Amino acid sequence: MHTGPERSGEVIKITGSTPLEDILKIHDxxxxxxxxxxxxxxxxxxxxxVFVAFLxxxxxxxxxxxxxxxxxxxDDRGWTCKFGRTEEWAHYHQDPELRTAFDAxxxxxxxxxxxxxxxxQRVVMAARGVTTAPIAxxxxxxxxxxxxxxxxANFTAKQTKAREGGx
Length: 167
Hints:
Elements: E1 6-8, E2 11-13, H1 20-24, E3 51-56, H2 59-66, H3 79-94, H4 96-99, H5 109-128, E4 131-136, H6 149-152
Parallel strand pairs: 3-4
Antiparallel strand pairs: 1-2
């Protein structure tokens, strides 16, 4: 059973299962990282408060980063096999529009997502009035707090800062 976003003082708790419709009801500014929703962005309704930033990153780097998530665990078969090639891949093949927007079904999920965004989703969103832009991952290097890939090499899932005394 889903109960929607939880509020605690100034903190709004949104989980991976919080539906987009519930998130859009929040009147506070919210930034979400939701790669599992990438197959849906062209279906967003025009809303002046929504901006879809599509992060364009070297897909081999994405593959390596994703597959570090379960590294060292007994059930490590890699994020790509566990989620990318099953759940995310399926969305792009079940949607008739998206299925026509990428070159090869056996490409990395990152490649499929980028091709679908460039060829179909960005065009559809622009026509519908949904504000969107691709953002080059390499541009993050100009931001304060950016850490070089060598520093992030052993980060865990969702880790954004180096821990004191190590990574």
